[in-house]
Amino acid sequence: MSSARRAHAAVKVTVDLAILTVREGRLQVLLIERGNEPFRGRAALPGGFLRDGEDLDAAARRELREETGLDGSALHLAQLGAFGAPGRDPRGRVVTIAYLAIAPHLPVPVPGSDASGARWEPVEASLADPDRLAFDHGDILRTAVDRARRELEYTTLATVFCGETFTMGELREIYEVVWGVPLDPRNFSRKVKKTEGFVIPSGEQRVQETGRPATLYRRGPATTLYPPMLRGADQGGEPVGAVSPAR
Amino acid sequence: MSSARRAHAAVKVTVDLAILTVREGRLQVLLIERGNEPFRGRAALPGGFLRDGEDLDAAARRELREETGLDGSALHLAQLGAFGAPGRDPRGRVVTIAYLAIAPHLPVPVPGSDASGARWEPVEASLADPDRLAFDHGDILRTAVDRARRELEYTTLATVFCGETFTMGELREIYEVVWGVPLDPRNFSRKVKKTEGFVIPSGEQRVQETGRPATLYRRGPATTLYPPMLRGADQGGEPVGAVSPAR
DNA sequence: ACAAAAGTGTTGAATCTACACCCATGC
DNA sequence: GCATGGGTGTAGATTCAACACTTTTGT
User: Is Hydrolase found in the keyword set (chains A, B) (predicted)?
Assistant: First the structure.
C-alpha cells in the first residue's frame, strides 16, 4: 500500500493500438519508434492521448489514421481493455485503453505515417524480450494476440485479415499462422463452406503461380461461427481476464 | 465534432462493478441507490473513483468491499472494459473501467454496505428500461451479462456462482438461469463429469427436500472447458466488442 | 510427364441428443 | 405405493479427423 491516498486521482488517458496483420507467413504487429521521452528510441505500439470531448473509439480511429495512414472505418477495431498499473508510465498516472485492430495484408510499412519509423514486426520477436517494447506494451500485445487467437475460433475475424477477395488457401493460412498449427486443407475448406454466411463465392477465380486456379471468396454476413472452428484441446490461459484467484 | 480540442483531456477515472448472482431462480445484479447527485435516488452499479497510486484491479476490489462488504479475494473479478463516451457523466469527463464480479448465492441483500440501499434485482428488470440505471450503467450491465453467458460456455465460471460445495442440480440451474434455456439433467451431469478438472466429488451427499440425495462437488482445477458446453446455435451479438462496421 | 495446389468421397472414431430405465429418499 | 429428483445405458444422427483420389493449372 502506497501512502498517497487522495481520492480522485488526476489521471491522463491514452489510447494504444495493437494492429495485427499476417505478412510473409507470420503474424506481425505494427510498431513505431518513439521520438520523444520517455522510452525515446524504443519500439512501441502506436497511440496517443485522449482529447477533450472525444469518444474512446473515435480516439482509437484517429490515432490509427494519424500514426499509420490507415482508414479506421475499413478495419476491424475492438477494445481490448484498460491497462492502468500505477507505475506503467514514468510521466505520471496514465491509464491506457488498448484496442485491437486487424489489417488486411497491406502494401508495405505504411504510408503517411506520423511517427519517425513505423514498421511491421513478427509478434514473437516483440514478445521475446519483456522489455523490448516501451511501457507495458508487451502485456498489451500479448493480450491482443490471445484475443485474436480466441476470436478466430468463434467469429469470422479471420476474413478481415484478408483482402476484399481471397482464396480458401489464403484464409486457411491466416488460421495456420495465427494459431501456429497446420490445418488440413480439405477439411478446412469443407468446414468453412458449410458454415452459413462465413464466405460467399465471388464467382471468379485466381490463377496461382502453380496448381489449379482457386475460387475467390468474399466475406459473408455472419459474425459468429456456429459451430466454431476448432484448434484442438488445451491452450491454457486464464478465462479471459480473471483478476483474482477465484478458485 | 465538438469544438474543444486541446490535447490531454483532463479525465477522472472510476471503477464500476456489475456483480451478478443467481437468486430465486433468476440472474440478479447488485444495485445501490445513489445518495448524491448526479442521478440522486436512481439505481446504479456500485463503484467509485480511482485513487492515487492504486491499481485498477485493486480499486475494483476496494469498491467491492466498501460498497457491499464482500471480500474480493473470494470472488471472481474480471475487467469488462472501459466506457468513456463524452456525455456519460454530467460532472465532466469521466471514464469508467467496468468489472464483472460473480458472487455465489449470498446470505441476503448484503451486510456492511456503504451505500444507502444495496439490493439484488433481476437483470431483466434493470435492462427493461434503458434509463432505469444511472449513467450508462445499462450498457455496462448488458455487456456484463453477455460476457457471463459467453464465459459459461468456455470456462468453469459457473462454479463460482455456486457455494463451496454444490450439487449437479445446482450447477445446472446456473446454466439454465443465465442462459434462459432448459437443459437435460442426465446429459448435463454426464458431460460435466467427463470434462477433466471441472468438478471433483467431495465424497459427501446432501439430502434434498425430496428425491434421492445428491452427490456434492467442489470446483476442479480447470479454468477452460474443452470441449465447451453448448447452448445451441445463434445468440447473435457482435463479435465481442467490435467497434467499426468492419464488414 | 510432373509438380503443386484445389477440391470431392469415404471411413472409423467421437460427440450430441433424446429418451428408456434404475436408484434413493420423503410422504 | 408414489412422487420427485439423482444418475446410468443406449441408439440414431451429426460431426470430426485422416487420407485416398480426382481436377486443373504452369513448367
Answer: yes
